[in-house]
């Protein structure tokens, strides 16, 4: 193992009772050595469209006045060979039966993180994982997730999965890019259509990926990997 890969993770609609049907988790991968180069390209794109460098990239900020910027940002992601994306979608959290499996919603939420991340970790690299901070309990939960992932790969000395850290998206541009792609996937799975600008961004993702975003891709898909989770039957 030599090169370090950074994994930037975010989510949409993860709360148990937020009146949203889906949960979407997602992650951008980028070699650590190239993250600043990608950041400079995004900064240059902001400058081209007159967007302040401090302005956060967010799915909720996609609007007619910024449509061209966000569509070109999608192109930047697909044109940049160092970047990859994986998402896990839970289509209907109202159908979850946590009590039947002896778990809480938080337990399930972190199981989904494990499911997302295990497809991104390999034998050839070392990894640093960054997850958008959600609450004051994040650090404790992420320590447990780190422990479980390391046990999965027999990485007891933590030489492969170096750390899992809670960060604030405002400070990490690749985390913001993850928010954009996750937002697009969530919008599709919630069957929304109210924003022409957001639909334009989704169309470009579909054009560039060749995917509907509504179905799982082959597990080995690297550039844009989608897994639509299905619950097990309770016997």
Keywords:
globular; 235 residues; alpha/beta; 6-stranded mixed beta sheet
Polypeptide structure, described:
This protein has 235 residues and is α/β, with parallel strands linked by helices. It has six helices and six strands.
Helix-strand layout with pairing:
Elements: E1 4-12, E2 23-31, H1 35-48, H2 67-79, E3 84-90, H3 105-118, E4 126-132, H4 138-152, E5 161-167, H5 173-189, H6 196-209, E6 224-228
Parallel strand pairs: 1-4, 3-6, 4-5
Antiparallel strand pairs: 1-2, 2-3
Helix pairs in contact: 1-2, 2-6, 3-4, 5-6
Binned strand content: 15-25%
Helix vs. strand class? alpha/beta
Low-confidence stretches: none
Number of DSSP strand runs:
6
Distance N to C terminus = 42 Å
The H-and-E topology, N to C, reads as EEHHEHEHEHHE
Main sheet record = 6 strands, mixed
The geometry reads as globular
| Radius of gyration from the alpha-carbon trace, in angstroms | 17 Å
Mean pLDDT: 88
Residues in helix, %: 25-40%
Spatial order of the strands in the main sheet? 5-4-1-2-3-6
* Helical stretch tally: 6
């Amino acid at each position: 193992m030599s090169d370090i890969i950074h994994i930037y993770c975010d989510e949409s609609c993860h709360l148990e009772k937020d009146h949203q049907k889906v949960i979407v988790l997602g992650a951008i991968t980028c070699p650590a050595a190239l993250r600043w180069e990608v950041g400079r390209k995004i900064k240059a794109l902001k400058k081209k469209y007159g967007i302040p460098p401090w302005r956060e990239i967010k799915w909720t900020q996609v609007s007619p006045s910024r449509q061209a910027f966000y569509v070109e940002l999608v192109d930047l992601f697909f044109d940049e060979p160092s970047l990859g994306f994986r998402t896990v979608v839970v289509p209907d959290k109202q159908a979850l039966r946590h009590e039947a499996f002896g778990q809480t919603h938080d337990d399930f939420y972190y199981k989904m993180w494990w499911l997302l991340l295990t497809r991104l970790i390999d034998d050839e690299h070392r990894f640093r994982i960054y997850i958008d901070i959600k609450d004051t309990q994040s650090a404790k939960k992420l320590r447990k997730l780190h422990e479980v992932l390391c046990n999965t790969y027999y990485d007891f000395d933590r030489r492969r999965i170096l750390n899992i850290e809670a960060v604030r998206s405002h400070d990490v541009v690749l985390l913001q890019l993850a928010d954009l792609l996750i937002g697009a996937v969530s919008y599709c799975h919630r069957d929304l259509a109210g924003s022409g600008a957001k639909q334009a961004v989704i169309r470009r993702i579909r054009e560039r990926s060749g995917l509907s975003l509504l179905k799982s891709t082959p597990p080995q898909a690297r550039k844009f990997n989608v897994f639509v989770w299905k619950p097990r039957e309770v016997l």
